[in-house]
Task: inverse folding
């Protein structure tokens, strides 16, 4: 399960993982220069940093794009809500694979949650 072929880093995306994520990556914005960055390598760099906890300046340059490019992609995805879209899509797919409804159909609120919400609410006069 954890064996990776191809000699890359252990956190690199497998072909199956990339096939699933590739469809969720937005295309380059129209009107600008064409995208030169291979998005799979950029995501591999992000996952490498997340997995190892290394600072940005320690990102190896050989298999990955420049760290400024990777950082700019991370920030742009944050601003555009891409990470939330990816999370939502993968969450629904995981629930379906587990034989559950794609989105939750019920919620539970207990009395402790209600009391905590009441204490934090602003008092109206």
Result:
């Amino acid at each position: 399960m954890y064996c990776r072929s191809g000699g890359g880093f252990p956190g690199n995306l497998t072909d199956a993982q990339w096939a699933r994520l590739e469809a969720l990556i937005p295309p380059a914005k129209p009107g600008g220069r064409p995208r030169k960055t291979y998005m799979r390598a950029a995501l591999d760099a992000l996952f490498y940093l997340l997995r190892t906890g290394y600072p940005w300046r320690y990102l190896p340059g050989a298999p990955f794009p420049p760290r400024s490019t990777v950082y700019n992609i991370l920030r742009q995805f944050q601003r555009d809500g891409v990470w939330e879209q990816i999370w939502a899509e993968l969450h629904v797919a995981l629930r379906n694979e587990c034989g559950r409804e794609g989105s939750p159909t019920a919620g539970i609120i207990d009395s402790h949650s209600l009391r905590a919400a009441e204490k934090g609410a602003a008092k109206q006069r």
About this structure: The CA atoms of residues 94 and 100 lie 9 Å apart. The mean pLDDT is 83.
